[in-house]
Amino acid sequence: MFKPTSIGFVLNPKAGRRKIDFWERELRSGLASANVKCEFVRTRQPREAEEISANLAREHELVVAVGGDGTVHEVAQGVIGTQAVLGLVPNGSGNDFNRFLGMPRNIGEAVRLLVSGCEKVSVDVAQLTTVEEDETVGRNRWVINSAGFGFDAATAAGRDRIAVLKGLPLYLTSALWTLSVYKDHGFRVSLDDGVSEYLPGLMVCGGLGQFEGGGFRVFPGALHDDGLIDVCMVGSVPKLTALSLLGKAVYGGHATDRNVRMNRARRLRVVSDDPFCVHADGEIAGTSAVRVDLEIKPKCLQVAKPFVL
Fold this sequence. Notes:
By secondary structure, the protein is of the alpha+beta class. It has helices at about 15-30, 50-60, 70-80, 100, 105-115, 150-160, 165-180, 240-250; strands at about 5-10, 35-40, 60-65, 85-90, 120-130, 140-145, 145-150, 185-190, 195-205, 230-235, 260-265, 265-280, 285-305. The chain folds into two domains: about 5-115, Rossmann fold (3-Layer(aba) Sandwich); about 125-300, Tumour Suppressor Smad4, CATH 2.60.200. The chain contains eight helices and 13 strands. Helix 2 (about 50-60) packs across helix 3 (about 70-80). The chain is globular, with a radius of gyration of 19 Å.
């Protein structure tokens, strides 16, 4: 059982100051009777959470992201490679990584679990490298849940236009809008340094966990600790077929559709002459990529996970 003696919390003010103030009060209230050293830090600008979490990881046993997939993605960048454990209090629009962790949405309950004792679990991560159209090499990013190239990344990019929805309805609405204007790409895909195969299609994506996009079960057989990337490739299809695949993807039924190919690999490379959008854990990691590499790094991150009875 992992019972931390010191915890650093990273809060993302994107949710709004009043909401963040409430979250912090709830966190402090839940910690009031615990003999735990705590530190609370709010981010002030995009990607600042990476530096903050790296600093907290040097001072605390547990570094907790308070937010959704975007926040936990940024916090993980600073925690990976340290001795600290990553924790989560889920309060975002997607929370796909939390479908694996299983932390309660109630802040008080989540804090009580973190301080009373969780299981410390080692999970895989993947290293993502992008090359943009102008031959600029993007910096390496760690992926803890999924990365996508093409349609699903364009859908992630479009979600900020929709302010009133969260979770699956948000991503589904963005997907429908994206589908109406999206043009397929000519992808060349290679797995584990194998022969490159041409795939004109909608998207290619790799998952460590089963869910992305706020609840789509894109990778129904994925495990966070098997040392493999689950790869989903969707070919060129009519828009009505794409709509059908979207519906099937909610429960993983797309995986057996003849227009979809599922594979597993340790390394994935995607190349295209047509620049494409890239996401890492739902965060945009490139808007005009011509090559991406995704490589598994087994059990490089420790996470705090509630015991399953």
